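Folds abound. A case:
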Amino acid sequence: ETAIGTGGNPEPKRFTFQAPPSAFEALAAAGVDVVTMANNHAGDFGRDGIRQALDAAVVARSASPPLAVVGIGQDADDAFAPAMVEIAGATVAVLGASAADDDPTADPTGHLAATDSQPGTADAVDPTLLVRAVEQARAEADVIVVYLHWGIQGQSCPSHAQTELARATAEAGADVVLGSHAHRLQGAGMLGDTFVAYGLGNFAWYT
């Protein structure tokens, strides 16, 4: 949950986070296959910071071991494109999107969400593009995992918006829906044939 890059101008926010591109190397070395950057801090250093992250993602994807980065892209289609990973003979599609309570589109300019012509994050406040991406992935993948940055910080129960988005994503064909952003463990269970974990909490946190 950070911008990836070095330097630049931080956005006028209370908290701005930035990690160097070597963070991707560390994640890959630890055995992580896919990381999502669809969150409300990916754009902490503006559109230029997004471009730095995209450049670092290209390097990470071709490194050894490789790391796939989802939830961010040169445009909206790119931001919603899944990573395809082969696991035990099964093709697993992993998508990332953000619908956090302080998501980029909460700003009237919507300036950090990817558009048809601008780089940014995969924004699922309006679920249309996410639903379409899941439906398209269904044609190629055996298992679809959707990682969502959503909900209300500090809340231990999912919001109505979370449950509605979980249902829309499940109906589109997702097999697993996982969430973060609240910094609390939230409920988990089956929604029809889809496993949903609304909030995974944090390994370490200051409260």
Q: What stands out?
A: The longest helix spans residues 46-62. Confidence is low (pLDDT under 50) at residues 103-110. The longest strand covers residues 90-100.
